[in-house]
């Protein structure tokens, strides 16, 4: 991490607070119209996908229905659910768009997400040993984590995590690494498991039982389409999230260097531990504007559709303070994620020798 004096960190905090305050002072009808338009679009896409699915015995219709439903799930999870649960629209006082009452279309409960993501991840971003989102307890992505033989297979784990991403996120609070080390017991996790079973069961019943049975003569087609839609959502969501956190230039931190950190130091950690990627308007919308992960980590409670407007100002602040602003083409950033996963699947002594050669 870049070394800055307390005075420099205080100035960084002032500069970024000014950007945040400017957006907060301007919140209003434009933001409310935007999120409500996204909700209407999601509902239209979901209804369209569901209505087309029974006619999926016609191959082009099956593809169209599956993709439409998959996009609806992406939009609901990324641009609506994730951002609403960050409190970005709490000021509207709309119970259907409030962070504490919203429940999204995925197996992870909103309460679990708020605990593991909103608090744990955004407080301890990329601090090894504190931020369990860094690698999701199945991927080794830094030399700070000791290599173990099972890491050699982590690219397979990466593929499995991506395919079943909603289930991996839903079970994240289980803290399997602490269960393995016996820091915690299964009994302590029973309340969470019951909560997860209820939500996961409802989601599985809806997509894999209710809607297929509703169209019984073509139930296998509807079932296959729903599986495909969830797969589309899982692969896209995991890819976007990995590109925001695990690129080559995204830094990690030790617990020691973050002890008693100031708000300015927290800002510095968010700026240097995050990654953006570039693209068109709909790429940003379907990523939940997590294509602007740097801005999101600095300002998680600002409406995400505002990030493109403030990215230039954040870049200017980074340039002023000599901080690297990590951005690049989507394909390039994703490529560095894959390289990082593969590199850290090998022991440090092997990768070190390769670099030396």
From TrEMBL:
<dbReference type="GO" id="GO:0016717">
    <property type="term" value="F:oxidoreductase activity, acting on paired donors, with oxidation of a pair of donors resulting in the reduction of molecular oxygen to two molecules of water"/>
</dbReference>
<protein>
    <submittedName>
        <fullName>Fatty acid desaturase</fullName>
    </submittedName>
</protein>
<keyword id="KW-1133">Transmembrane helix</keyword>
<feature type="transmembrane region" description="Helical">
    <location>
        <begin position="155"/>
        <end position="174"/>
    </location>
</feature>
<dbReference type="GO" id="GO:0016020">
    <property type="term" value="C:membrane"/>
</dbReference>
<dbReference type="GO" id="GO:0006629">
    <property type="term" value="P:lipid metabolic process"/>
</dbReference>
<feature type="transmembrane region" description="Helical">
    <location>
        <begin position="51"/>
        <end position="75"/>
    </location>
</feature>
<dbReference type="Pfam" id="PF00487">
    <property type="entry name" value="FA_desaturase"/>
</dbReference>
<keyword id="KW-0812">Transmembrane</keyword>
<dbReference type="InterPro" id="IPR005804">
    <property type="entry name" value="FA_desaturase_dom"/>
</dbReference>
<feature type="transmembrane region" description="Helical">
    <location>
        <begin position="208"/>
        <end position="229"/>
    </location>
</feature>
<keyword id="KW-0472">Membrane</keyword>
<dbReference type="InterPro" id="IPR012171">
    <property type="entry name" value="Fatty_acid_desaturase"/>
</dbReference>
<feature type="domain" description="Fatty acid desaturase">
    <location>
        <begin position="61"/>
        <end position="327"/>
    </location>
</feature>
């Amino acid at each position: 991490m870049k070394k800055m004096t307390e005075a420099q960190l205080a100035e960084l905090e002032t500069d970024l607070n000014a950007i945040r305050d400017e957006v907060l002072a301007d919140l209003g009808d434009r933001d409310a119209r935007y999120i409500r338009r996204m909700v209407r679009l999601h509902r239209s896409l979901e209804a369209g996908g569901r209505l087309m699915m029974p006619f999926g015995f016609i191959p082009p219709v099956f593809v169209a229905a599956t993709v439409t439903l998959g996009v609806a799930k992406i939009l609901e999870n990324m641009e609506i659910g994730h951002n609403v649960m960050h409190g970005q629209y709490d000021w509207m006082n709309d119970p259907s768009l409030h962070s504490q009452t919203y429940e999204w279309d995925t197996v992870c409960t909103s309460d679990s997400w708020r605990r593991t993501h909103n608090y744990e991840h955004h407080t301890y971003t990329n601090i090894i040993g504190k931020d369990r989102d860094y690698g999701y307890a199945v991927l080794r992505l830094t030399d700070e984590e000791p290599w173990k033989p099972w890491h050699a297979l982590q690219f397979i784990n990466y593929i499995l995590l991506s395919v079943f991403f909603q289930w991996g996120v839903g079970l994240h609070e289980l803290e399997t690494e602490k269960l393995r080390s016996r820091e915690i017991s299964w009994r302590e996790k029973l309340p969470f498991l019951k909560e997860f079973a209820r939500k996961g069961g409802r989601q599985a019943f809806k997509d894999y039982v209710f809607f297929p049975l509703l169209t019984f003569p073509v139930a296998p087609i509807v079932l296959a389409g729903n599986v495909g839609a969830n797969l589309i959502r899982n692969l896209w969501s995991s890819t976007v999230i990995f590109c925001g956190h695990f690129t080559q230039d995204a830094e990690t931190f030790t617990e020691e260097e973050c002890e008693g950190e100031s708000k300015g130091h927290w800002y510095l950690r968010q700026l240097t531990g995050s990654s953006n990627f570039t693209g068109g308007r709909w790429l940003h919308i379907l990523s939940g504007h997590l294509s602007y992960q740097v801005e999101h980590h600095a300002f998680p409670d600002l409406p995400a559709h505002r990030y493109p407007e403030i990215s230039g100002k954040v870049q200017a602040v980074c340039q002023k303070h000599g901080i690297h602003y990590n951005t690049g083409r989507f394909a390039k950033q994703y490529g560095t994620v894959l390289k990082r996963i593969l590199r850290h699947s090998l022991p440090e002594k092997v990768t070190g020798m390769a670099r030396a050669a």
